[in-house]
Specification:
The complex is a heterodimer of chains A (364) and B (286). Chain A is α+β, with helices and mostly antiparallel strands. Chain A has helices at 42-50, 92-102, 107-121, 136-148, 166-183, 194-200, 218-223, 228-233, and strands at 4-13, 16-26, 31-35, 57-62, 65-66, 77-80, 154-158, 186-191, 203-208, 211-216, 240-249, 252-257, 262-264, 278-283, 288-290, 300-312, 317-323, 326-332, 343-349, 354-357. Chain B folds into 2 domains: 3-62; 76-280, Orthogonal Bundle (MetI-like fold), CATH 1.10.3720.10. The chains are: A alpha+beta (364), B mainly alpha (286).
Chain lengths: 364, 286
């Protein structure tokens, strides 16, 4: 029952504007992920929703209620912090029940709700331990348990997994997703990890330098990046991106890279560019494949290049090769042995090539 | 013998020499308290005590018994009462105010914060004794000479800077997220402080408290000026009562000194655990 809305929200630290008039509507029960490089304003935005930072400009509403002048405790939000921030002098049980005790609930009710939360997160056996006697993953669970006992309107997660090792991170990621299904409450989740964002989110908000670059479902962002930044930020390995200018050749517009490689502008983009325009064009690793190992795309541009390096990953192999002078990466799904210095024919799928205006960074 | 063993022996040897140097005067005070005046004044010195007795303590506390010098001239119990009242009250106030100050410096940003902090610390660079005359003049004008309140005020002022400094460091060690999570957990700022940050820094506060108490308990120079009668004289100032125009009752004075040391020792042992964690905090993680 709690949508969250940010209307023209800004945050200043001294003269630096960390968040620049952002607008955002978070739907009830949605899992929304704020993602971006460090310093992009995602954490500040989250902390403003929590009430831990002043809102310097704009309005934040939870439900239909304006939050600007309310204390954190009056907002009915729960926050999970990166360093867990468990109360070290209390047992797990006391940690979980603390907010209910402060709220003045009866002992019996506290016990019941603590046990319920402990059950959901599978930490019942640790209830009498102190946080220092728990492993990282267990601490993270307690932190989440502490957040859910309150039955808040909104959960706020501030990079909750970045202190965990890779294996545990994957495991906890799944658990967070499961938790959302169980408690179905609005979640705002901040991370700098695009994989976390892609796997967890109903919708992703990509931020950079205090502004929102794009809002959309994970697939939206992957398939239709609105800006060059989004295109390179989402997806792993990162999208290959090459600078070029538009030239006319044989009555057709082409893209000429800085080191002289000429690639035709995809058919559907022919009318969207003009001669002389500076652009970048990008393509994902799986959209440039060695010819003899894959099926040739219907609208292909071919080039020959030698392999700099190959990384076999089992189901796929990443091949590093040169596109003109620039190193790009190609992803091949056929498990064939490829060696360095092999000369291969690559086919670039022009239908899946993205063009961005070099000045504005916007997709063409 | 290898190099490590030689090193160890050297370290132990220096430590023992150092301990002897530190302990000897204290030991001498304790010994003197149990010896007759003749032994104490003997020349050449009697190093190994020949007979020990409790006469000085009996005289001091119970007004003497048969064979002693008669009724104690020194109102030790009044001094004890003054010392207790002054030390505990001033410690309580200094720790209370100092902790709030330390919290403020650790958690809040305000203009010229560092300068204020430096200023508070600078007050401790002035030798206390040099303040005795100005304080005496001011106190005599407002009628605080020879009162508990006057002496308590001086000790509070003396102890607050140290308390601020020590607790500031402690509060800084507690992650900010701790109080933030408490605030989203439904606490007011004050509740977050009371339930979370205060218990987490109790080692620091205990250390600050014991230091403040010892300073107040042992202070002599300032109180000797401000206290005039049994209304406010503390035990340390009471030591001077053992001096007469031509004689000094050394065993009596030392007996009182021992009497002064005991409560301080007991208190220090009681909070020893906190004191050790308190003073090594920051160096040791988690």
């Amino acid at each position: 029952m709690a949508k969250v809305s940010l209307q023209g929200v800004s945050k200043f630290y001294g003269k630096v504007q960390a968040v620049k008039k952002i607008d955002l509507e978070i739907i009830d029960k949605e899992f929304l992920v704020l993602v971006g490089p460090s310093g992009c304003g995602k954490s500040s935005s989250l902390r403003m929703i929590a009430g831990l930072e002043e809102i310097d400009e704009g309005i934040i509403k939870i439900g239909d209620k304006e939050m600007n002048n309310l204390e954190p405790r009056e907002r009915n939000v729960s926050m999970v912090f990166q360093n867990y921030a468990l109360y070290p002098h209390m047992t797990v049980e006391e940690n979980l029940g603390f907010s209910l005790k402060i709220a003045g609930l009866a002992k019996k009710e506290i016990e019941q709700r603590v046990n319920e939360a402990a059950g959901i997160l599978d930490i019942t056996e640790f209830l009498q331990r102190k946080p220092s006697q728990l492993s990282g993953g267990q601490r993270q669970r307690v932190a989440m348990g502490r957040a859910i006992v309150r039955r808040p309107d909104v959960f706020l997660f501030d990079e909750p997994l970045s202190n965990l090792d890779a294996k545990l991170r994957n495991q906890m990621r799944t658990e967070i997703k499961r938790l959302h299904q169980k408690v179905s409450t609005t979640i705002v989740y901040v991370t700098h990890d695009q994989v976390e964002a892609m796997t967890l989110a109903d919708r992703i908000v990509i931020m950079k330098d205090g502004i929102i670059e794009q809002i959309g479902t994970p697939l939206d962002l992957f398939e239709r990046p609105a800006t060059k930044f989004v295109a390179t930020f989402i997806g792993s390995p990162s999208m290959n991106m090459i600078k070029a200018s538009i030239v006319k050749q044989n009555n057709e517009l082409s893209m000429k890279t800085n080191d002289g490689v000429i690639v035709p502008v995809p058919k559907d983009k022919q009318k969207s560019v003009i001669e002389g325009q500076n652009i970048s064009f990008g393509f994902r690793a799986e959209d440039i494949v060695p010819l003899k190992f894959g099926q040739k795309p219907s609208s292909a541009w071919e080039m020959q290049s030698s392999v700099n390096l190959a990384e076999p990953l089992g189901t796929e192999t990443l091949i590093f090769t040169n596109f003109g002078e620039i190193e790009i990466v190609s992803r091949m799904f056929t498990p064939e042995q490829v060696k360095s210095n092999d000369n291969l024919n690559f086919a670039l799928n022009l239908d899946r090539t993205y063009l961005f205006d070099e000045n504005s960074g916007l997709a063409i | 013998m290898n190099k490590k063993q030689i090193n160890n022996i050297l370290i132990w040897f220096s430590a023992i020499v150092l301990i002897i140097l530190i302990m000897t005067p204290g030991l001498w005070v304790v010994l003197t308290a149990f010896r007759p005046q003749v032994d104490v004044m003997a020349k050449p010195a009697v190093w190994i005590p020949r007979n020990l007795n409790l006469i000085q303590f009996e005289t001091m506390l119970f007004g003497g018994s048969e064979g002693s010098m008669g009724r104690s001239p020194i109102p030790v119990l009044s001094y004890l009462r003054n010392s207790l009242i002054i030390s505990f009250t001033s410690t309580f106030i200094a720790v209370l105010v100092g902790t709030i100050g330390g919290y403020g410096f650790a958690r809040h940003n305000f203009k010229h914060k560092n300068k204020y902090f430096l200023l508070i610390m600078l007050t401790r660079t002035i030798p206390g004794i040099s303040l005795s005359l100005p304080i005496f003049i001011i106190f005599s004008k407002i009628g605080l000479i020879d009162t508990h309140i006057g002496i308590i005020l001086v000790f509070v002022a003396l102890n607050i800077p140290f308390t601020v400094w020590l607790t500031d460091g402690f509060f800084r060690q507690i992650p900010r997220a701790m109080s933030e999570v408490a605030m989203t957990d439904g606490c007011t700022k004050l509740q977050a402080f009371w339930h979370i940050e205060l218990p987490l820094s109790r080692s620091g506060i205990a250390s600050a408290g014991i230091f403040a108490f010892l300073i107040s308990w042992n202070e002599y120079a300032l109180v000797s000026n401000l206290a005039r009668s049994t209304d406010s004289k503390t035990l340390t100032v009471g030591l001077m009562d053992f001096t007469a125009q031509f004689t000094i009752n050394w065993p009596g004075m030392c007996a009182l000194a021992v009497f002064i040391i005991i409560p301080a020792l007991i208190l220090t042992f009681m909070v020893q655990k906190h004191l050790v964690t308190g003073l090594t905090f920051g160096g040791v993680k988690g």
